[in-house]
Prior knowledge:
Strand content: under 5%
Order of helices and strands: HHH
Radius of gyration: 13 Å
Shape: globular
Largest sheet: none
Amino acid sequence: xxxxxxxxxxxxxxxxxxxxxxxxxxxxxxxxxxxxxxxxxxxxxxxxxxxxxxxxxxxxxxxxxxxxxxxxxxxxx
Length: 77
């Protein structure tokens, strides 16, 4: 598995705090409430996150992606 740099993780999360790549976020989305803030606040929050917080958001996003793919393919119903 490829190790990601802190800068890469921060850039990834910064994109997620601006918009859900799937159009509509699930209620469980870890960045859903952050998206309601102003642009400067979203940037500041993403910059202030430690690596553990970034990893949690990225892992949650990856799980969400899998759920949506399974839903589209009919695996889970």
